[in-house]
From TrEMBL:
Positions of the AMP-binding enzyme C-terminal domain: 448-523
Organism: Campylobacter gastrosuis
Cellular localisation: Membrane
Enzyme Commission numbers on file: 6.2.1.3
Major localization class: membrane
Entry-linked InterPro entries: AMP-bd_C, AMP-bd_C_sf, AMP-binding_CS, AMP-dep_synth/lig_dom, ANL_N_sf, ATP-dep_AMP-bd_enzyme
Name of the molecule in the record: Long-chain-fatty-acid--CoA ligase
Keyword Ligase: yes
Domain of life: Bacteria
Pathway participation: Lipid metabolism; fatty acid beta-oxidation
Length: 537
């Protein structure tokens, strides 16, 4: 693959030079041009330089969706430093673990997250930038401290009650008097960012992603979806997530397109309103959102007057019922399923604009190889289910501070996902390897059962898990969330499942839940359900 740019700052600089007045970000009633964005990035980058951030240093970003997140991210990589976007839903112990694990030099954080950051002195970090203002606890009685350098110019040092800890208001940095200069330029093989996985078991793991990893993804997705400078990407999913960051932040910046910034997914009616008013063309969602849209009453004017040409789904496979519902609601747009994981930067595959296969996540992006293998890493015949492994420029350098021998084998990344290939190379996700249920020696795939449950109109969400019984065999258990205002009982569910599934796949126990536990991207947290079920059995 040929790469035009060596790093993201070079990319942004070129786009800003060619499209000074083009709109980079729509933020409520504000329009931020590429020239303004580049200027803000340079000023924040210059401040980071002034407090000692150097090439290769890790800078943590704990910021909610905002233009400040984008400016912070690009300011960090402008120095050749390594950005560490963090999940804004984490608690202090989780935040502290990541900050220490990556040895963060500085933290940029939203002040609204302060309640989880009260014990920052325990992290060893001495420099903090606060989006939304420095929390009152850290503000000294004196105004912003300043120091005069050798040439008589004012240096911003921030304010704080601890002499050797610096707290700065992000907005102050936009007036920083010095210029970004002398920063070492990153190359394709240098680290761009570290994405910490959600940590379904044990502590989170930091996937080290290089610029080559990022650009292989960005170029592949651009070609697959025909993205261009005229597109407008509506961004409401958390920017810290690898899928959103690559496809909805970095990709639009790469082609000179616009980002429509939505700070919160709630109320969802506002997402649809902004998509309509600002003429969004590309929409990224997760299955839970598409399921809700498919079942909701969408205003007729939105259906016919929106400009969305492409709906992209990631994070988890879509139920066939959701796809069918969606086609009726939005006949003029494409709903494209993709597949990826943080360790692959993250996109591995997607369906094509002119060719889709139901229940498939499509073909690998150009330059990537996908195989289906046995536990012994032997390639399996077409149609057989095994673990999906991936090879290509998307594969991460490895996990930070961890051995990677069991994850990356001869350049092949073991995904932990179970799937199969058809004769055209289309990928079908069957389930997560760790979610596979083995009952009486028979493999049972939870997704297959979930697909059938979703066919019931009253079902809002469903999750099927395996629970070990007293004989160490696994029993099938289902959790179901019923749509508000609907009624559904266990007898009705069992009767329906028996018409469509073999008896050994019918859940032994069915539990109803007001809301299934999910992570920031909408994935149901099955490990939490397994913990909950221990108290029920």
């Amino acid at each position: 693959m040929n790469y035009t740019y060596q790093n993201l700052y070079e990319n942004l600089s070129k786009i800003a030079e060619q499209n000074l007045n083009a709109i980079a970000i729509f933020d409520a009633d504000k329009k931020i041009s590429y020239a303004t964005l580049k200027s803000s990035v340079d000023k924040v980058g210059a401040y980071l330089q002034s407090v000692g951030v150097k090439f290769g240093d890790k800078v943590a970003i704990l910021v909610t969706n905002s233009q400040e997140f984008i400016v912070s991210y690009y300011a960090v990589v402008a120095l050749g430093a390594v950005a560490v976007p963090m999940n804004t839903f984490l608690k202090f112990d989780e935040i502290s673990y990541i900050l220490k694990d990556c040895n963060a030099k500085l933290l940029i954080a939203s002040n609204q997250l302060f309640k989880e950051l009260k014990n920052l002195n325990e992290t060893g970090i001495r420099n903090f930038i606060w989006v939304g203002g420095v929390p009152s606890r850290f503000i000294a009685s004196s105004p912003l401290q300043r120091e005069i350098d050798d040439e008589g110019e004012s240096l911003y040092l921030g304010s704080g009650v601890d002499d050797d800890i610096c707290h700065v208001n992000f907005d102050e940095l936009l007036g920083f008097p010095h210029r970004l200069s002398g920063a070492r330029s990153a190359t394709l093989d240098d680290l761009c960012h570290i994405i910490y996985t959600s940590g379904t078991t044990g502590k989170p793991k930091g996937a080290m992603i290089t610029y080559k990893n990022i650009y292989s993804n960005v170029i592949g997705v651009t070609e697959r979806f025909k993205a261009n400078a005229k597109d407008r990407f509506i961004v409401f999913l958390p920017m810290f997530h690898s899928f959103t960051l690559t496809t909805m932040v970095i990709l639009p910046m790469h082609v000179g397109a616009s980002i429509i910034l939505i700070k919160s997914v709630f109320p969802f009616s506002n997402v649809l309103k902004q998509a309509l008013l600002k003429r969004a063309t590309i929409f990224l969602g997760v299955p839970a959102i598409y399921t809700a849209i498919g079942k909701a009453k969408i205003p007729w004017y939105f259906k016919w007057f929106n400009n969305i040409r492409l709906f992209i789904c990631g994070a988890a496979p879509l139920a066939q019922q959701t796809i069918d519902d969606f086609k009726i609601k939005f006949p003029r747009a494409r709903l494209i399923e993709g597949y990826g994981l943080s360790e692959c930067s993250p996109v591995v595959a997607s369906n094509l604009l002119d060719k889709q296969k139901l229940l498939s996540v499509g073909l690998p992006l150009d330059g990537y190889e996908v195989k289906i293998v046995s536990d012994e890493m032997m390639e399996l015949p077409l149609g057989e289910v095994g673990e999906i492994i991936v090879k290509g420029d998307c594969v991460m350098r490895g996990y930070h501070n961890m051995a990677n021998d069991e994850t990356i084998v001869n350049g092949w990344l073991k995904t932990g996902d179970l799937g199969k290939l058809d004769d055209e190379g289309f990928i079908y996700i069957v389930d997560r390897k760790k979610d596979l249920i083995i009952s009486k020696g028979i493999n049972i795939y939870p997704r297959e059962i979930e697909e059938v449950i979703y066919q019931l109109n009253a079902v809002e969400a469903a999750a099927v898990i395996g629970i070990a019984d007293e004989h160490a065999d696994e029993e099938v258990v289902a959790f179901i969330q019923v749509k508000e205002g609907e009624n559904l009982d266990e007898k009705e569910i069992r009767s329906y499942l028996k018409k469509h599934l073999a008896n050994f796949k019918i859940p032994k126990n069915i539990y109803f839940s007001e809301a299934l536990p999910r992570n920031a991207t909408g994935k149901v947290l099955k490990r939490i359900l397994k913990e909950q079920i221990k108290d029920k059995i």
